């Protein structure tokens, strides 16, 4: 295993709320009140839709406001990884990642382990650090790819806090059988003083529609036993994931970070419930390079 490279769950698609679009040469956010499932490929119009998006949208009869999912792991912290993150907007590289107690910070000499005081009191971040989380889920029951996940990235405190609580609670009431519960991601709206009474949307995690909590627990116990009888080792899978995450200082790949910075770490504009700027988003790294070339001129 390559040291310094975080081994993360295989990703076959993304789950997002809204998107970043290009208009008149500017990268602008476009809010939405529904989920979108995309592939990992971008075209001129943005991320290309995943085939599951159309299938689920037909089942929903239009807007996609809930997605049937299962968790990959029994350990809640492996499914949802949340930390305080600071990215370099120029290079797109992660600079510092912490949990409010300790942090890993990149400098010229390598990765340093330091005390983390959180984004509000951190003089190094100068207000550019924020909570950032990734949730990996199996869409449906993972029939097509039992280990191929969709990733939901968010900087929304509402989403992070809600998902963290739900995962811990479902893990507790199911006797640790979180990966066997039939769940669904659900989009909820709320208004706050900070949103000027406008609706903001966040993601919740609930038992699938039409199933009670008690029925879900019975199903989880049955599925857990079926998996054990077939030789499926959930404990070993959790441990493999735990070891993989610990193998690297930073989780996000360098090639993915520019898109993360563009969507969740804009330099201007207020932030909505899911971390997308309500006004203009920071130009892409390629756009910055193009601007620099234009200023320097030929030769």
From TrEMBL:
GO MF terms held by the record: hydrolase activity
Pfam families: Gp3-like (PF18897)
Top-rank taxon: Bacteria
Keyword annotations: Hydrolase
UniProt KW Hydrolase keyword: yes
Protein name from the UniProt record: Hydrolase or metal-binding protein
């Amino acid at each position: 295993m390559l040291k310094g490279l975080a081994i993360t769950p295989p990703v076959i698609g993304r789950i997002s709320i809204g998107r970043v679009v290009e208009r008149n040469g500017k990268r602008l956010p476009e809010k939405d009140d529904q989920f979108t499932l995309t592939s990992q490929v971008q075209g001129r119009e943005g991320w290309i839709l995943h085939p599951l998006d159309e299938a689920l949208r037909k089942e929903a009869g239009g807007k996609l406001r809930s997605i049937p999912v299962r968790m990959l792991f029994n350990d809640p912290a492996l499914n949802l990884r949340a930390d305080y993150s600071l990215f370099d907007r120029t290079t797109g590289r992660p600079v510092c990642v912490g949990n409010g107690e300790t942090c890993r910070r990149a400098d010229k000499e390598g990765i340093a382990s330091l005390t983390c005081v959180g984004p509000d009191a951190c003089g190094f971040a100068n207000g550019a650090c924020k909570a950032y989380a990734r949730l990996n889920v199996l869409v449906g029951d993972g029939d097509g790819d039992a280990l191929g996940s969709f990733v939901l990235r968010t900087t929304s405190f509402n989403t992070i806090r809600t998902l963290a609580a739900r995962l811990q609670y479902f893990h507790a009431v199911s006797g640790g059988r979180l990966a066997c519960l039939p769940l669904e991601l659900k989009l909820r709206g709320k208004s706050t003083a900070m949103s000027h009474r406008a609706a903001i949307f966040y993601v919740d995690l609930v038992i699938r529609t039409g199933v009670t909590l008690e029925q879900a627990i019975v199903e989880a116990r049955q599925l857990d036993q079926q998996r054990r009888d077939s030789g499926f080792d959930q404990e070993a899978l959790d441990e493999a994931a735990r070891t993989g995450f610990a193998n690297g200082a930073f989780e996000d790949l360098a090639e993915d970070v520019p898109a993360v910075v563009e969507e969740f770490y804009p330099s201007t504009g207020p932030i909505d419930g899911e971390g997308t700027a309500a006004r203009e988003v920071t130009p892409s790294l390629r756009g910055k390079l193009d601007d620099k070339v234009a200023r320097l001129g030929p030769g």
